[in-house]
Amino acid sequence: MEEIEFILDSTKESMIGSIAHLEKEFLNIRAGKATPQMLGSVFVDYYGSQTPLSQVSNVSVPDARTITIQPYEKAMLHPIEKAIMIANIGFNPMNNGDVIIISVPALTEERRRDLVKQAKVEAEDAKIGIRNARKDANTDIKKLEKDGTSEDVCKTAEDDIQKLTDGFIRKVDEHLATKEAEIMKV
């Protein structure tokens, strides 16, 4: 019985991990509103080492279409500007001598559809992760059954795994529906 509980717990942890990964990936899909996470992939050359932008500057969002970057050291203005251009994330930074200002362009209908497709791919990847966790758990349960665990206990465990899987697949679908609505909202 302890083995079955362990399998259920580890499967649930794996499925929670798939949802957490999906949420993280969804943060990187911009929905028209400016957020500091949009610059999460930008790394700046800070005295010879690649450092995340958030560690060398204060990134803020004064309004829905603007991101401002205030470097902790004024000498970092040009390296930050260069790093944003190198990151190739579609932004054109403007340096006014004190801060870097990025105007986030409005999304076109075509770009919104592309972002929805991207979100669907991420959601499907999460579902694949959840299904793989189910498959691994069912394989472990079959091994226990061969090793002498009762058939009823194993069947109940497989049913529990399936219920868990269905619940997490529903969560992925809910996250996708929310993200889709967020992206398509003008």
Structure write-up:
The protein contains 5 helices and 6 strands. The protein is α+β, with helices and mostly antiparallel strands. It has a 4-stranded antiparallel beta sheet with strand order 3-4-6-5. It has a two-stranded antiparallel sheet with strand order 1-2. Strand 3 (57-63) and strand 4 form a beta hairpin. The radius of gyration is 23 Å and the shape is elongated. It starts with a helix and ends with a helix.
Key terms for this structure?
5 helices, 186 residues
Largest sheet: 4 strands, antiparallel
The portion of residues assigned to helices is 55-70%
Whole-angstrom Rg: 23 Å
Count of discrete alpha- or pi-helical segments spanning 4 or more residues:
5
Strand order, main sheet: write it out.
3-4-6-5
Broad structural category? alpha+beta
Strand percent estimate = 5-15%
Overall strand count: 6
Q: Compute the average pLDDT.
A: 89
What is the string of SSEs from the N terminus onward?
Answer: HEEHEEHEEHH
Low-confidence segments, ≥5 residues, pLDDT <50? none
- The rough form would be described as elongated
Distance between the termini: 53 Å
Layout of secondary structure:
Layout: H1 2-27, E1 43-46, E2 49-52, H2 53-56, E3 57-63, E4 66-71, H3 77-87, E5 94-95, E6 100-103, H4 109-146, H5 151-184
Antiparallel strand pairs: 1-2, 3-4, 4-6, 5-6
In short:
With 186 residues, the chain is of the alpha+beta class.
